[in-house]
Amino acid sequence: MSVEVRSFGTYPDGQAIKLYTISNGNGMQVSVTNVGAALVKVICPDKNGTPADVVLGFDEGEAYLENVSFFGCVIGPNANRIADASFCLDGCTYKLDANNGKNNLHSHKEKGWHKRLWKAEVHENDESVTFYLEDGDGSLGFPGNKKAAVTYSLDSENALKLHYHADSDKRTLLNLTNHSYFNLEGHNSGSIEGHELWMGASAYTPADEGSIPTGKIADVKDTPMDFRISKKVGQEIGADFEQLTFAGGYDHNWVIDGWDQTLRHFATLKAPGSGRIMKVFTTLPGVQFYAGNFIEKQAGKDRSLYHARSGLCLETQYFPDTIHHPGFPDGIFGEEKEYDSVTVYQFGVL
Predict the structure, then answer these.
(1) What's the rounded Cα separation, in Å, for the pair 320 and 252?
(2) Using one digit for the tens of pLDDT, what is the confidence trace for 243-270?
(3) Which residues are known catalytic residues?
(4) SS (HEC) of 99-116
């Protein structure tokens, strides 16, 4: 295995944007960039041994500074939504950017961690790359001087591991995720509605019309939200079900069964045409399954055109708006409590 580094553009302040490619000898390659610590490419073979790139993204680093759909990026300091773009912590009220109606989404669309230039360190011995970022007290409205690191590594079993670590000198919200869109038929192959998905999740968190959780944890049984038996993504995505109507399809947080902070297999995605399969593992309590309902029409890699449902996301996370719901897992970190999580995407064939 090896790590190759090449130029990938120029950041607005003149610093170099780099692309780091990890190869494992099985015909698999993973490319990441220091803009947003983004996952740019995942090239893996299909059932016939033919390689293809299975994540949506761009050919130039500068395009990740636009990136309205958050392709591939690490989101922080807080992924997903916060109601009314504010929260109270330790007696203080913190105001955030109201960038999703009256709510906050992904911390800040223009200044969030997904558009920052991270420092990078290549680890040749274990074929991995670590990205580092520091963010000051009050930045984007969040308390605490924060330090974050994300390490991407690829092993001989075609497992792509993302190890996140962060801390703060004040208690604050920390909820990091990767916003990659996967299409296991190939990033430029059209709709993901034919993909088959299994999730080990017996419950989800219903949300209102603004995608803010109600605070309830609902059973998936006898609803279109039930993926405990593998089914096509498109099978019930248009069902007359209020939650799907609100979100234009799947864009919800599922509660991972048996969460105990250990690494747990919670999802398997299959593409019948290519025969590719992706198993997903995490130490986190929830996952936002987003079916790409609102991907804007835009040019992507290899002169492709992306559109709604060209890819899907499995964003491991603490629950959305957890700060406002005492019954949700605690997403407050800092001082003596450091944030640490692992998510693994393992690729293979049927």
Answers:
(1) 9
(2) 999 999 999 999 999 999 999 999 999 9
(3) 179, 315
(4) CECCEEECCCCCCCHHHC
